[in-house]
Amino acid sequence: MVTVLQTENLEKNYMLGNIPVHALRGVNLEVAEGDFVAILGPSGSGKSTLLNLLGALDTPSAGSVRIGNSDVSVLNDSELALLRRRIGIVFQFFNLVSRLTARENVELPLSIANFPRSKRREIAEDLLEMVGLKDRMTHKPSELSGGERQRVAIARALASKPQFLLMDEPTGNIDSKTAKELMTLVKDLNTKHGMTIVMVTHDRTMAKYATRVLELLDGQIKKEACN
Ligand SMILES: Nc1ncnc2c1ncn2[C@@H]1O[C@H](COP(=O)(O)OP(=O)(O)OP(=O)(O)O)[C@@H](O)[C@H]1O
Ligand SMILES: [Mg+2]
């Protein structure tokens, strides 16, 4: 078993004025290559906080996050930037660039990584085809449905060949039928392409697509179930 992600006694405190908020209170989590983990929990339980720490987008107050063989806390800025390129993140609100087409949005991380134009285009077109958007490549986000936008966001997250995919409420802003279609796609990424996935959600029906389900409550993992 290859461990891709590991947290040890992970804590995160925020200050709200001068009142401390204990968002995570000692989370121990290990994700192996090929896992599809759902983190289920009510609003405010710390799901996004945990996901941001797993994506090296934020720093812990205590405890540690290991990504592959690296302890995130000892990396310098350029090492962190390199590491982040290999992490795919999909957020609830898509975060697409509105003036760019679907294809240009998917190409964006590849431009940043200095891929030549023709290669960028080829990778973006392949990925958009894979997520079922072959005939939507030149649409801007405003010309796409919520489910289509989320597919573009997934294609963009996959463009840099990430070691794993983190998803924060990927179905939070789409209707339930579209959500099921999207989850079928996500499930296929895991089963057919071996992608390691950590998805946070407050929706039990979405968690059913995962192979492991963790329940987060008040910043702690309360239990783990296997689907
Ligand atoms: N930047 C911040 N400053 C202060 N408190 C914060 C901050 N971000 C989150 N919190 C608090 O930390 C706790 C966990 O928040 P988090 O966003 O991780 O919850 P969540 O499980 O993702 O909730 P939701 O399902 O509503 O997205 C909450 O009590 C929240 O109010
Ligand atoms: Mg959240």
Task: Describe the fold and architecture.
There is one protein chain. This protein has 7 helices and 10 strands. The radius of gyration is 17 Å and the shape is globular. The protein has helices spanning 47-54, 77-85, 102-112, 117-130, 146-159, 176-193, 204-207; strands at 3-16, 19-32, 36-40, 62-67, 70-71, 87-90, 164-168, 197-201, 212-217, 220-226. It has a domain at 98-151. The protein has a 6-stranded mixed beta sheet, sandwiched between helices. The chain has a 4-stranded antiparallel beta sheet with strand order 2-1-4-5, with helices on one face. It has 227 residues and is α/β, with parallel strands linked by helices. α3 packs across α4 (117-130), α3 (102-112) runs parallel beside α5 and α4 packs across α5 (146-159). The mean pLDDT is 93. Magnesium ion is lined by residues 47-48, 168. Magnesium ion binds at residues 47-48, 168.
